[in-house]
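Progress against Task 2.4 (sequence-to-structure conversion) is shown through the following example record, which the project officer requested during the mid-term review.
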Amino acid sequence: MLLVRVEASPLQRSSAPLELINLIALEEPCIRQGGMCRMIEDCDEGNLVQMRGVLCPKQRHLGVECCYL
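Structure tokens generated for the chain above:
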């Protein structure tokens, strides 16, 4: 017999702030250029692919661009 007890309360809050987590999908046009779709602010300026707005079209409206790693 296996007994499991879980104690939790939705009213309890942790002291750590909640962070928003973005899931960014890989897009084929970017991968073919040797990059990965990333938030533009997470990509070093020198690594940003020159063909902006074309290689991550499905997520462009979210501020995602193709970035060399």
